[in-house]
From TrEMBL:
This is Esterase. PANTHER family: HYDROLASE ALPHA/BETA FOLD FAMILY, PIMELOYL-[ACYL-CARRIER PROTEIN] METHYL ESTER ESTERASE. SUPFAM superfamilies: alpha/beta-Hydrolases. It comes from Methylobacterium crusticola. Keywords: Signal. InterPro entries: AB_hydrolase_fold (IPR029058), Carboxylesterase_BioH (IPR050228). Residues 1-23 form the signal peptide. The lineage of its organism: Bacteria, Pseudomonadati, Pseudomonadota, Alphaproteobacteria, Hyphomicrobiales.
Length: 346
């Protein structure tokens, strides 16, 4: 009786060192990643002259800075190319959303490249590597402006974000069958950054930057998430040039069904939601609006679809489904849709 127990203990110890992803189909080691080119650049931006750039004696308060530019990192694989995909992160996060998962698995940015798609990852304007404007903060600090003119900046705390990301209804409760790797949540929380959305104009300057980027690429699928879910739709209202399709993952908002549907006519659109949506007052109304938008877009000659993962038997996915334990299976679904719809329309 003791020998099997020792064997089981050894297996358990081995799994504790390199735990398999629960629910993720076993995949062979991918081997070296071969790319033709990679790099980074900025899109957009404007110069601002200010007398409150600094309150430090070693830096001049007056001068010109560039703001509202959007950072873009790209990788182009070697070999035959699929349609490019542009990945746009959501609230309180950066382009890290799409990179290595909190528990160390391959992120979508790498996986899409391995599947043959040139991949562009952005940091929203005033977020991550996209510069913010400190002038109004320093103006208040220097006594040149009232406190009321301070910009509004917010962060999502672990406890509040718990329900926003649908890990559970109340921190630290967990939804049954949740596929987010909660054992690695400490790494996830490190991704969270302050968000200046409330201090930016509408539409967010990220929107015209995305429109410009799509034109530069010459054809790309804009894949957005959460807060940025509406941005590709707003970019399409500016210009359809370069927008080959839209994949909006768990959008914070879809266009209203009463909006002008002309910008979306013949445009491949996929709206995706994970699990537990109807159990959360924050998310259920958003799903209803997106359903209504899809119906309105198609009635106006659109090519829109809504995919609720539990409807096809995929359950347990959180709001952060690109980091859930079945993330690559979901990536395969999205890339197959892109190849069939946006790729064919390119």
């Amino acid at each position: 009786m003791r020998r099997p127990l020792i064997t089981i203990a050894c297996i358990a110890a081995a799994l504790a060192v390199t735990p398999p992803a629960v629910g993720q189909t076993a995949r062979p080691e991918p081997g070296p990643l071969t790319i033709a080119k990679q790099g980074s650049f900025f899109v957009g931006g404007r110069d601002v002259t200010s007398d409150t750039l600094s309150t430090l004696p070693n830096y001049a308060p007056s001068g010109t800075i560039t703001v509202d530019q959007m950072y873009v990192r790209y990788q182009v694989p070697a070999g035959p190319l699929g349609i490019p995909v542009t990945l746009v992160h959501g609230c309180c996060l950066t382009g890290k959303t799409w990179e290595t998962t909190p528990d160390g698995r391959m992120g979508w940015d790498e996986y899409f490249v391995r599947r043959g798609h040139p991949t562009y990852v952005i940091d929203q304007v005033w977020r991550g590597r996209s510069a913010a404007n400190p002038s109004s903060i320093n103006a208040v600090r220097a006594g040149k402006a009232p406190v009321e003119q301070l910009p509004t900046v917010f962060s999502a705390g672990h406890e509040g974000a718990w329900a926003i990301f649908r890990f559970g209804k109340t921190y630290p409760e967990v939804m049954p069958g949740l596929r987010f790797p909660l054992a690695a949540q400490a790494e996830f929380w490190k991704q969270m950054v302050p968000d200046s959305l409330a201090s930016l104009p509408t539409p967010n300057p990220t929107v015209p930057a995305l429109s410009d980027l799509a034109g530069r690429i010459g054809g790309t699928v804009l894949m957005s998430h959460s807060q940025s879910g509406i941005y590709p739709f707003q970019a399409a209202t500016l210009s359809r040039r370069g927008i080959a399709g839209i994949v909006s993952i768990e959008p914070g908002a879809c266009p209203e069904p009463t909006d002008d549907m002309a910008p979306y006519r013949d445009l491949p659109i996929l709206v995706v939601f994970g699990d537990y949506v109807d159990a959360f007052p924050r998310w259920a109304p958003r799903l209803r609006t997106c359903r209504a938008f899809v119906a309105a877009a198609n009635a106006a000659g659109g090519r829109a679809e809504l995919l609720l993962l539990p409807d096809i038997g995929i359950k347990g996915n959180s709001h952060m489904l690109m980091q859930d334990d079945n993330s690559l299976e979901i990536a395969d679904l999205l890339l197959d849709w892109i190849d069939r719809h946006a790729g064919a329309a390119r």
